[in-house]
Amino acid sequence: MSLALAAALSQSIVPHVDLPPPQEDPCAGFEEAEGLSGIGQRAFTLDDQVRMADIGRANPVGAARAIGVAPDGEHIAFVVKRANPEANVYCQRLMIAAMDGSGAAVEVDRGGEFIRDDFRLRDFPAIMAGWDRPNPPRWSSDGSRIGYLKRLNGSTQVWLVDPDRTVPPRQATALPDNVDSFAWTNDGTALIVATRPGIRIQSEAIAREAAEGFLFDERFSPQFADRPIPTGQLETHYSYVSLADGEVWVASSEEARLLSGEAPEGLPARARAYAENDSGIAAWLEPSEPTRLISPTRLVVGWPDGNQIVCEQKACEGIRELWWSSDGTALLALQATGWANSQTAILRWELGEAQPRQILLTEDALVGCTVAGGELLCGREGFGQPRRLVAIDVVTGADRLIHDPNPRLEERTFGTVERLRFRNAFGAESYADLVLPPDHQAGQRHPLIVVQYTSVGFLRGGTGDEVPIHPLANRGFAVLSFDRPDFSAAALGATTEEELTRANRADWIDRRRVQSSLETAISLAIDTGSVDRARMGISGFSDGGSTVQWALINSDLFQVASMGSCCEDMYSYPLAAGPRFTDFVRAMGYRHFEPGTEEFWKPMSLILNVDDVDVPILIQTGDSEYEAGLDVFETYSYRGRPIELYVLEDETHIKWQPAHRQAIYRRSVEWFEFWLMKRMDCDPAKVGQYARWLAMDGAPARKDLRCSDGRSSLP
After folding, report:
1. Is pTM, for the whole model, over 0.90?
2. How many Å apart are CA 526 and CA 278, to the nearest integer?
């Protein structure tokens, strides 16, 4: 039996039809819209949000560099990505802009499939992610070509583009495996390319097992796949690809270092953010308490002769990234600082000074920065300001705009934001952002929606980006964008992942700390006089989903809930994840299918607390995770509790498809409006949805409902 036939048969158990992909250019509609202007101010809507253009990964936390600087320093290249929910694809355009900000950015290539990143999960080395792989364009040394990753027909390869557009774009590599990253050789005649053939080799071996059946072992995670998953370490292979004739051979160790970014030998274990100037002076971050799993870091600068200086002062705490100034005389650093690390700073350390000095302090997020001349190029975004490309002077900290990928959003109105800072009952610094409708008037009290569990940069939709914050504010809600507190001191002192989880799970202390911060934030929001305490809902995804569970069981704050993943409970949770995960969590103190299980789970289990939880729950989760909550869904459905589950096809933990993002946004808004505002979308296509919701226990009476435009919902 061929591998192709085996794959086809595996899909033949139930009837299944795939709709043909759209044939139109996904960018065409956006080009027409960009030509419109002067419409005037109007509310920022969920449809605006789902179509926002992004440069780099949408989530700013830890996002990699997305900008390529030309060798002459006069131009930059970047990929602009914009979701097209109608076609369920992304418009992707390779753009060039002048560094001085003059003129409009110019498109030099477009197209390609969304390039999903992957990540390691325990012993599974490559689980597909819902965010995009880092893809900064890379200029050749003479500036005559730009290379970037492009995915066509399921294969990610390097493509070359002429900045002057005199030569059509061309595919430069045709390797059997997806290209993860690449670099130019110094002379510009070849590329050094990184791939992981082990993914393909293991997958082919697993496919050959299918003829005799798969042994159910630690390679299985039923929620991800109905077959074994590649496991273990995957070696990265570095190849030399000649641009003259396409010949490919194994790269030398020196050539591989152009791409691997390996730090020299002799650095401490877990040293990171290594940066070296042209004089061989290096800087890096290293753990100040090496035995701890999560350790504070110290900044080290080392000279070629072996001399070092170390900055362990408070001024150097929280540093995340390092660069050298273009002339090599100053070290630049990006730092998380301030209350609960809620602010961003740029530091400058002249080599003759005792410690770095702060040149910029902001509550904005600075994303994917890189040095160009006397400036640091970054994506910059704030509470109500979507990401733009800016250049920040590395002496003064002043910035200037280079490119705004969403210029028409200047005509939109966003919610007003107040940052709330406080300590929880355990003394931990915490914060949340209260977002009110832009037309809020003193004395008005709005229904409140909690969105979590990070509140950084442009307030989009919380972790997972599922509940649109500013669109909700524009529809009359107050939104509390909640940032969860850090772990306890005991957990932060752990030396292994097992110790960390055991410390967090001791008497469910981590959940109690988060709940304490959440309750304090809500109390402060209510104290502003702008929140109706009798109409409050909560949403959550991933760790935030666990926060929703705990809050519904251990408080009576909320009248409605929405979850992007479900649930951390006794039965389906370990079974769906597979035997390796079950062993993993048991080793960390969880109990499953053994004496004492119910006693352990009582404070956290929605199943065991079904008699006390009568809050309507909406679950919207991917087909790779919904099995984990089936025990909760069945328990609540059988008991007549108001609950609804949507399963989104071909989705991982964080959802990636534009049509699904739009559907999740809309359904979340409609769910909260129905329960907290007695408001409904009177589109005839929504009749079935509201019929189900009206039949739920505790639903508002039909006569009390109003259409979104204010009309009665009754005929």
Report:
1. yes
2. 56
